[in-house]
Amino acid sequence: MIKKCLFPAAGYGTRFLPATKSMPKEMMPVVNKPLIEYGVEEAIKAGINNMCIVMGRGKHSIMDHFDKNYELEHQISGTNKEELLVDIREVIDIANFTYIRQHEIKGLGHAVLTGQELIGDEPFAVILSDDLCVNERESVLEQMVALYKQFRCSIIAVQEVPEDEICKYGIISGEMIRDDLYCVNEMIEKPERGSAPSNLAIVGRYILTPDIFGLIECTKLGTGGEIQLTDSLLKQARYGCVLAYKFKGKRFDCGGVEGYVQATNYFFEKLYLKGEKKLKLLRKPLLKAT
Ligand code: UTP
Fold first, then answer.
1. In terms of C-beta density within 10 A (0-12 exposed, 13-18 middle, 19 or more buried), how is residue 59 classed?
2. In a domain? residue 104
């Protein structure tokens, strides 16, 4: 039902300078895998095969990563290093990748609108790959796709954040319709101290219905002089329905140093079996989406 996932990946990643001066933030590795690959795996687990990536200047390594590298494959063929390419080979085998360039970095709303060309007129998922989400059982996007099947409206992932972090996020409030589900009626991007309607912060997972594109088109520049997706979603919430879902699982903000280090420690513990003398990488094969 949700067949495409949009990855806005054109941002400058200024919180991670100088590392992101010439390297895309999305390609920063957590243990041995780039952030965006975790996002693509999450989308595949949610049954989505088409990855639509919004690129910017200097982001070519993302395209190269999701492509075959025959020289390298030839070089390590028959050695024990081949094992390290199993995951990415599987991703390339299962998923299709399409790319579009965002010529001006005018905000997340503008990046999503740029992706319209690749998405067309159908509901779609959005993953911000610097928000690394994990859950032992259903992935966060899988949980959201299941909700979409039930409610057929836009759904945004939210998480409670401490008081002193509220000003860094888009914050929602709404009518609680279930323990973990709110019908949104208020939304504000990076509220000033004391003006937030709640402590429920939007994180980088969305399911959007395609009417969002028209709403973004008539959204004026907002906080930070950018076209904010939050402002367009608020319009959608006011004339229709937007649900905010308190997902099950952990989320690491890998757009900043602290969250990135926490994610690295978490995945190192999770992915490696620590034997007596050497570390062994544990793999969980992806299921082919049907
Ligand atoms: P961020 O707000 O994290 O911005 O964007 P950023 O540029 O990536 O990072 P900082 O804040 O300067 O450190 C959220 C997501 O939206 C994408 C980013 O690539 C990131 O995945 N984005 C943002 C775009 O694709 N285009 C934009 O114009 C803005």
1. buried
2. yes
